[in-house]
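Hey, can you fold this?
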Amino acid sequence: MNPVVALTESLAQKGMNGMLVSNIKNIRYLTGFTGSSACLLITGKNRIFFTDSRYDEQTKREVRGFDIIIEQQERPRELLDKARASGITTLGFESTVSYSFYKSLLRKGIRVKCVTNLLEDMRRVKGMLEMKMISRAVERAEKAFLEMKPYIRTGFSEKHLALRLEAGLKNQGCAVIPFDIIVAAGSNSAMPHAKPTDYRIRQGDFVMIDWAGEAGGYFSDMTRTFIMRGGKDLPVRKEIYNTVLGANRQAIAIVREGIMARSVDKTARDIIKKAGYGDCFGHGTGHGVGLDVHELPRISRVSRETLRAGMVFTVEPGIYLSGVGGVRIEDMVLVGKQGCRVLTSLPEELEVL
């Protein structure tokens, strides 16, 4: 079903006869608009797109099926004037609006109602065009990584590798870099969200790289970890790596429509716990990926949702040892009726470089 139609049909069930959409990613989802400033007002009969004069020409090119208003006064006043004219008595708004914007909506004559994750829930299940863009984002990310990979050598700094990978992503056509690339070597890799530093890779180091691609506004997300030759305790490091690899593979193996998201997390977590590293895996096992790098569904021990065909998310167990380093192996999967399809294709087997 067209997402605008689905949203319109859900309004009465939510006790509203109008909805204000202000989250720019949700606006892109509903309209295809790629700018950075807009709002939507949607009722059973009206679909109105608000933006400012900077986006006049762009809106004409990108937005279809909406009445377009180029604002002549402050946005909240413009919205409320149209809401009254449209007969709206209860106006829903997204919980992500700023407090000042919320206060500006509190005018006499219209009741406002906060709505949480209404469109984000719709975005959980991807359509064919969305999957095409996500697959392209994966392809771009993997090609960029393979171009950078020969530089993962002792003596090269984390920052050097991150900059090479970022340049590769842009060369592959990524319009934006979805998040700051993580390149973490040695003890720095014990931090799941480490930032690249001037640290130079040494023998025996874990080298963890977490990066993402983009296509048509949609993202990918993946992580690979390597071990550098030499150094001490190589058998222990290999054991840690293979434990994470086993958790990744077994969690992916149970993904299918109808199972609980927390079951995927538990499968990965139990393997790591059994190996004696349960306290070294603190984050969730995965998250949805689409117009945002982190979106619904959440694959964690506290999740209460059931997987549905068409969901796309990461599976990314890890082990992080303070003073030693860490391993994370992250893939993306598409949920199907009987199983799942792994969207990422880079090898997972341990590589000692």
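Oh, and this one too while you're at it.
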Amino acid sequence: MGSFKSIAVLTTATVALAACGGQSSGDARDFVRVVGSSTVYPFATTVAESVAKSAGVKSPVVESTGTGAGMKLFCAGVGAKHPDVENASRRIKKSEYEECAKNGVKDIVEIQIGLDGIAFASARDGISVPLTVVDVYKALAATPFGKPNMAKTWKDVNPALPATPISIYGPPSTSGTRDALAELILTKGCESDPAMKALKDSNKDAHKKICTTVRTDGVYVEQGENDNLIVQKIAENRNAVGIFGFSFLEENMDKLKGLTMDGIAPSYQTVSDFSYPGARPLYIYVKAAHLKAIKGLKAFVEGFVPMWGKDGVLQGKGMVVAPDDVRAANAEVVRTMKLMDASQLK
């Protein structure tokens, strides 16, 4: 996991979190603490900086921990020593929600802030590989369709592709981008085989292992929770392919080019209409018990609404704007701080 990034220095605060779920007021904090997704990080920091100026509160501390690691911190408990907000580049899992509840984090507000895509890219003058979800699965899986992965070049994966060594830089297992890669790309490629699709019903654990476990023989290189480092690596290596949030591709089009997936290029339009296979929603999760106790928390959450629309500040930072009805529904969630319905979680 990469080092944490933050937009403010953690300091000893003076205001106690006295009203937080019955917690004692031994700990004190007068600023908002946010953890989670490296993809959501630049959007959350933009909101944090704006709120600090407009609302006259201390700048929220935003840490890029990865969605999975952030969920563990967020779900560890209620009180000043625990984060108030979790940034997520995929929806909270049922197991994480249950872990939250077990630790007293029972009232959670779920807000979809926008969209993003899992982009596959190479250097501007680098390799051009017209990818499919099946090719990516066969290139990345440790045991594609249940057999050891012996592919060394893209031609080994698909005879129509170049005989260039497979070299892929991507996110670690703690990342929401990695989780979304497993769900949106690898599993779909795996289930192109009817036997693998049937395995999901007969042996769910075996299905997950075969479909989503990534090879560890050096073909896939984890780059920590720092998508900018992946951008740098593939910009310097003509044969390398990188996997990261679409916003990072859009911000670096002078150095990179997006690779097609099933014939669809990653673009603002293809992510927004979900025609691109890697399109996904982005979220923030908020502890309702902290809303009154932590100064500036409500202002931070409300700060997303005017920024997430068409021609909004976050779009300028590379976020894909959610459809009108989705934005309206989530603006209402922000207004009422309605608790999430966990009945549909997986």
